[in-house]
Amino acid sequence: MELTMKPDYWDRATRLLSRRDPALRGLIDAYPEIHLRRRSDAFTALARAIVGQQISVKAADAVWRRFVTAVDPAHADVAFPAVAPAAVAALTPDALRNAGLSQRKAEYMQDLARRFADGSLNPESWTTLTDEALIEALVAVKGIGRWTAEMFLMFHELRADVFPIADLGLQKAIRLHYAGEHPLSLDEMQALAETWRPYRSVATWYLWRSLDPLPVEY
Predict the structure, then answer these.
(1) Which of 80, 54, 77 shows the shortest CA–CA distance to 2?
(2) pLDDT for residue 77 is more than 70
(3) Does this model's pTM top 0.70?
């Protein structure tokens, strides 16, 4: 599977954000060699997001390995295996639960797989959709809320101007760098982020780095 390297807007974004925002300039200078990067296909990224909901990273990795083995034992030891929607849709609920998914997550996974298999979710059509239109299409899937959809837009679709304001880590980083950890309302955070358009995804990514230097990849 081909991985996407640095997004084509990344250097342009870091230059603009560095000019506009001293706090971001410091973070950008501190992390010069890392950036957003896609590591999987659309279905696999969303399936992995469902697996990881409300459990630790360690537990999610363990369940994911069991899930991949249930779908295709030949890929059990592959670092970033692609998972075929049709193969997941063909699994029974019992097989998904035996792989470590809860009853609810098994239902979510089969709904997602069916939508990809029948074409009602078609990644080839997404390039024509606005961010909000794509989020709306994704949250129609059982188990995918707005936060998960926003993470997908940032980390898989590499959309440049996503601002996941409900993310607690982002809120913490904004308070740390712009308010000395004092309370800021969501409206105040939204207003601050207006200066980061059209690269709020990039600003968010660097703010996360100030809390956790190791980047997440989907």
Answers:
(1) 80
(2) no
(3) yes
